[in-house]
Amino acid sequence: METDIDRRIFDSLESGMLWFDDELRIVDANRSARELLGLGDRPLGVRIEDLDWEPFDEHGVPLADHARPVWLALNGNGETTSGVVVVRTQHGERALRVRAVPVASVGEGRGRGAVLSFTDITAERDASRSLLDSEQLFRMFGDHSLDLMWIVDPRKQKLLYMNSAYERIWGRPPAPLFESLAHWLDGVDPDDRQRVADAALHADASGLYQSEYRVHRPDGRLVWIRGRGFPLFGADGRMRYMAGFAEDITPARTSEALESAHRVARERLARIVATAPGAVYSYRQRPDGGGEFTFASPAILDLLGVDAAALVGRGIDLLALVHPDDRAGVAESLRVSAELGSAWLATFRVPHTPTGERCIEAHSMPVREADGGIVWHGFLIDITERRRTEQEIRSLNVDLEQRVADRTSELEAKHREMESFTYSVSHDLKAPLRGIDGYSRLLESDHADKLDQEGRFFVSMIRKATGHMGQLIDDLLAYSRVERGRPKLGPVAPGPVVATVMDGVAAEVAAGAIVLRAVVDPELVVLGESDGLVLALRNLLDNAIKFTAGRPDRSIEIGARRAQGQALFWVRDNGPGFDMRYHDRIFEIFQRLHRAEDFPGTGVGLAIVRKAVERMHGHVWAESAKGDGATFWIQLPAVEQQPNL
Amino acid sequence: MEDRRPILLVEDNPMDVDLTQRAFAKRHIVNSLEVARDGEEALAWMARWDSGHPQPVVILLDLKLPRVSGLEVLRQLKAHTEYCRIPVVVLTTSREDADVAAAYALGVNSYIVKPVEFEKFIDVAAQIDLYWCVLNQRAL
User: CB of B129 within 8 A of CB of B112?
Assistant: First the structure.
């Protein structure tokens, strides 16, 4: 110590100061050093080793001499060294922050040495050590917590602490969160994101928040989180940290969601049941065969006549409510439904309901139960009115059909009557005609000599008229004999028909030097009746022969071909033709367009043609230009050709 | 030898009866012509045959008859053990298929439609004479 002033200055320092010579003997110590190290009145000049101090590093590891700052200062290259040295003295363990400075001289007459200054940081170290302990405890505590625990420095917007629950609940690594708190929103459901962000923002101001939200884990699972945050205040009463918990409330949420879904479903069902037409029910058949209702909507009273409360779970078998006549059918349909697992659909009567006997329709599906029982869930509807309407419609239909049938048979009877009238009139006309003919013939043959020329002329006129009337009656009979009933329609080849017709007139054709030509499509098959077709064509051919009479170049063509899916027959002649103004009238009975002197006839032939064709569902028509022949057409359905036949 | 037994004509129309007689006369048929004017009378002839009256060589039967129809007469004749052998020729105005079929089903020997013209009537008489009164008997 150079001066007293220096001395006083050194002693006034709070830090301890020790002067060492180059052999690590304590040359001097200020007051603080003496007090702190408990040097007391021990004489200076002692070696530091002789002080019974045990030096340790700050972790409590014994400190080797050469690691000691003062040794380093003396033996180093003249640099200041510093460190923490723990010394155990009889006064206890002291932790010292030490600074050792090498000096050229440690006092008068002394060589080089080192000055060691130190501060007692024992209290500070103990405090920090206890803090460390509590932090370790806290971490252990935190790591065993199922809930997430976190601490944030709101000013720096930095996550200070978070336990391992984050990884477990969020399924994400925690590192990004320590980088930026913005990752807090990672995986939060888009619908909840804004809410979570708002809550956090609000919490920045108050430090307090609570919020529930959904998080989508990377593995696809959805978890429900309930987060709670609160402020941690410093000694000055200002918020220093924000801390909080977050718990996985998925199980609670899920059951809540299920419960809510169930409630919605129950309410929906109740509404449907209340508004559904008819009644909804569950009917159970026990393994022993007995049945009972396990559920029924209130409307069941109207349908089965039993109040739902009195029906459900009271062991009332459905069959007991069914009309006795319908029980066997219902039992059988239930049996089939149970056996096949198929829908049960049955109609039965229920005799006793508030509105009397009702007709019920049951719809349901069976579900087999573990114990062998079967439950049908379905609905019943009242179809009494529908049944009644159906019955009415049926009886109206039956009535209508009966009336149509009556009217038809009435018409048929009238028609038959007409036919038989025509027939018998024709017949009965023949009897007197036979008399007229017979007696006029006898008059002519046996009594001609008694008559003058005029008398004989009269007789011949009577006989001519008789002949005409006979023809007329025969034609009328032929017309009435064309049956009007259902024809036996079938495929007919036109070739043989035309051949038959031509054979029939062969003698006349030969006698009249007529050129008769047939043009028949050999592929054509017509749907008709052979006899009817022969009759029609024969009459048309007779007609053509008649109307070509007297011409030098008589020519007739008969033909058949296919046209637009139909069969067309024609008979064409080069006779005088007819005025097309009357083309419809010529097919009417007794209608004639020519004078009898020119062309004899009764006007029945073409009427027969039309009747014969129409009963084969065909059409007949004629075309002509006066003086230029006539063509008569018959159209009938053609049979489609099978190419491989 | 020609059979001179009578011919039974069952016919209600007197004019037809007369004309038949005259047609037979024209053909010089000498067999007597016995006439029944309706079905009942025709059936009554069976009783006369029972009591020895000569059976006809042929019966000419109209179908449209008062009281008992020609078909019924035919049925009863053909049901009789003995008289079923008498030839029956239906001589009628009806061409109706049903009548023709019914007559043949009941065992008629021939079915002739009455012609209007007297000449044809005479032809019919000739056929009847030739077949039933001459040829048929010769064959027996």
Answer: no
